[in-house]
Amino acid sequence: MAVGRGVLEAAGVFRGGRLARAREWWEQEHVFGYGLILPAFVLIGCLVVYPFGMAIYFSLSDYWVGSPGKFVGFGNFKEILGNEVFRQTVQNSFVFTGIALTAKIVLGVWLAMLLARNLRGKRLIRGAVLLPWVIPTALSTLGWWWMFDSLYSVVNWTGIRLGVITPPGPNWLGMSSYAMAAVIIVNIWRGLPFFAITVLAGLVSIPREYYEAAEVDGASSARRFLHVTLPLLKPVLAVVILFSTIFTFNEFNIVYVLTRGGPINTTHLFATLAYQTGLQGGNLGQGAAISLFMLPMLGMVVFFQLRYIRRE
Amino acid sequence: MITGVRSRAARMRSTTFAYANLLPFIFFALFPFYFMLITSFKSNAELYSLKSVPLWIQKGVIVDHYRYLFFRTEFLIWIKNSLIISVAATSISLVISILAGYSIARLRFPGVSSFGTAVFITYLVPPTLLFLPLSQVVVWLGIADSIWALIVTYPTFLVPFSTWLLMGYFRTIPREIEECALVDGATRMQTLFRIVLPMAIPGIVCVVLFSFTLTWNEFIYALTFVSQSSQKTAIVGVTADLIRGDIYYWGSLMAGAVLASVPVVAGYVIFLDYYVSGLTAGAVKG
Q1: Burial level of B250, CB count in 10 A (0-12/13-18/19+)?
Q2: Contacts of B103 in chain A (CB under 8 A)
Q3: Which residues pair with A64 in a beta bridge?
Q4: pLDDT bracket for residue A217 (50, 70, 90)
Q5: Which letter does DSSP use for residue A49 in this model?
Q6: How far lies B146's CA from each of A98, A192, B138, in Å?
Q7: Total-model pTM
Q8: Could you report the per-residue pLDDT of A19-69, keeping only the tens digit for each?
Q9: Which of A146, A205, A302 to mutate to test the interface with B (most CBs of B within 10 A)?
Q10: What ipTM was assigned to the predicted interfaces of this complex?
Q11: What is the CATH number of the domain that holds B216?
Q12: A75-311 maps to which CATH number?
C-alpha cells in the first residue's frame, strides 16, 4: 500500500497544485477510513445516541408533550414502581418472554432437525416455514385477531367440531389468561422461523463424520443428539437465544394490534405501556422511564454477546 | 443383504416420520395466510353467518372488498408512500453502510475496532427504546407527520444492520486484489467502487432485500410519527384506518392485509436463497 501512495505522490508532483495535495491527503489510509465512517457516525450520533440521552433526560423530568418540564430526579421511577399497572406489566413481560422463548427454543431445534433432513421438496418446505417471518407482523396479527374473534373465531369453530373445545369456546381476547396465551401463540408463530433457519445453518455445519463415528460406537439417536448435536450447536444457540431475548422482550406490534394491552392491562409489555403512557397519555417523562426499564435486560444481553465475540 | 433391506425400510420409516412431523409446522405456518386470503374473498353474508363453515368459501368468490379498498379508501396512496419511504431509506442506508462497512472491515486506523463494536451495540438497540425521544426530534426537525419523518429515522436501524452484514462480505474478498489496484494507480475510492463492490454483489443484494423488507414492515415509528392519513404507510393505514365504526370490516381489512404484503412476498419468493443466507449471516456472524 505504501507503493500505491508513492505512485500517487509521484503523479502529484507532476500535476502540482492544491487539488493534488488534497487528493494526497485524502488517499492516506486513516483519513480515508475516518472519511468513510463519518456519515454513519453522524447518523448514529444524531439519531441514536442523542435521542438515547434525551430518553434519559425525559425520564428524570416531568416532560409532557408540548411542555418542556423541569428536573424531578427519580420521581418518575418512584411513581412507576408504586403503580399497579406497571407491576402487572413487569410480570406480564417475564411470563410472556419466558414462555414464548422456551417454546421457540424447543420447537425451533426440533423443526431445524426436521428441515436438515434431505427430503424431497426441501426448498419449498423451508420457504413455507419461513413465510411468517417475512410478512409484516402488524398485518399477519390482524389475521390472528380475526381468527380469535369473540363470535366468529375459526379456532373455536374447529376446536368444537373436533371435540377439543366445549362450546361456545373461550373468548380469547376478552379473558386475561386466554389473551396472554393468544399473544404468546402469535409471537411463537412469528419468531419460530428465525430460530429454525438459524439453528439449521448451525446443524448443516456439523461434520457428518461425527455422527458416523457416534453411530459406529453404537450411540442411540437420543444420545447422538445429546452428546454430538447439542454441544456443537451451543455457539449458534447462544447467539439466537440472545437475539431473540431482545426482540421478544421488546415486542410491540403483536400486543398493540391484538389486545392493546388489555383486558385490564394483563397483556401490556414495556413497549406498549410506554406508548400508552408517553404518547397517548402525553406523559413523556414517565413513558421514557418505563421504556428505560428495558435497559438493564438489554445491557446484560449485550454484555454476554460481546464477551462471546471476544472469545471467538 | 438382509441388513441392506432392513436399513432401506428403516430409512423409509424415518422419512415418513419426518414428513408427518413437518406437517403440523407447515400447517401452523401457512393457515393464517390461507384464512386471511379466503376471508378477503367471502361475501359479508357468509362471513357473518354462524351457520357457514369458515374453513373454505361456500357462497362464491367476491371481489367487493378489494374494490372497496381501491375506490373508497386511501389504500393506493398508502402503498405509494410505503414504496417511496422504502426505496429512499434503503438507498440512503445502503450508501452509508457500504462506506462504513468497507472502512471498518478493511482499513487500519486508530479506533476502528471500537467503531465496529459501536455499530454492533447500535444494532442491538431496539426501536421501542427510542421512539419516544425520536418523536420529539422529528418535531424539532420540522418533519413530523410526513413521510420524511420515516425516511430520516429508518436508517437508524438499517445502517447498523447493513454495515454489520456488509463487513462480513468485505472480509471474504482477498486483500491482494485491492493492493494490486492501488499499485496500478487507482485511487482508494476507485478501488472500492470498481474492484471491491462488484465482488460483494451477493452481500449488497442481501442488504437491499432485508432493508426493503424491514422498512416496508416497520410499524412502531410509522404509527408514532405520522398521524394524517395521506402520509401513512401501507401497514399503518391498513391497521389503523380501515377499521370503521361498524363491525363488518373484516373482508376489506383482510384484503388490505393481503395486498399490502404482496411486495415483500414477491421479493421473498424470487430471492428465497438470499433471505435464508442473510438471516443466518446476521445472527451467526453476529
Answers
A1: buried
A2: 32-34, 36-37
A3: A67
A4: confident
A5: I
A6: 38, 34, 10
A7: 0.88
A8: 888 888 988 888 999 999 999 999 999 999 999 999 998 899 888 877 777
A9: A146
A10: 0.89
A11: 1.10.3720.10
A12: 1.10.3720.10
pLDDT digits (tens, 9 = 90+) for B105-143: 988 899 888 988 888 888 878 888 899 999 989 999 999
Domain ranges for chain A: 2-59, 75-311
- Nearest by CB to residue B29, choosing from A36, A129, A252, is A129
Cβ-defined contact of B104 to A37 (cutoff 8 Å): yes
Nearest to A288 by CA among A103, A60, A125: A60
Of A26, A136, A247, the CB nearest to B216: A136
* pLDDT per position as a tens digit, B159-192: 998 998 899 889 888 888 888 888 888 888 888 9
Min CA distance, A176 vs chain B (Å)? 23
Would you tell me how many other CB atoms lie within 10 Å of the CB of residue A156? 23
Residue B129 lies in a domain: yes
**Interface probe, candidates A48, A130, A245, A310, chain B, greatest B C-beta count within 10 A:** A48
Chain A positions touching B223 (Cβ under 8 A) are 256
Packing angle of the helix pair B112-124, B75-106 (nearest 10 deg): 150
A145 CB burial (10 A radius; 0-12, 13-18, 19+):
buried
B107 with A29: Cβ contact below 8 A: yes
How far apart CA B163 and CA B105 sit, in angstroms, is: 10
When comparing pLDDT for B34 and A262, which is higher?
B34
Instruction: Measure the CA–CA gap between A270 and A136, rounded to whole angstroms.
Output: 21
CB contact at 8 A, A117 and A203: no
Residue B54 domain-assigned (yes or no): no
A299 touches chain B (CB under 8 A): no
Using CA atoms, how far residue B204 sits from A63, B88, B95, B199, in Å, is 42, 16, 10, 10
Q: How many CB pairs under 8 A join A and B?
A: 287
Q: How far is A220 from chain B (nearest CA, A)?
A: 14
Task: Provide the domain count of chain B.
Answer: 1
Query: Which residue range(s) make up the domain with B154?
Result: 73-284
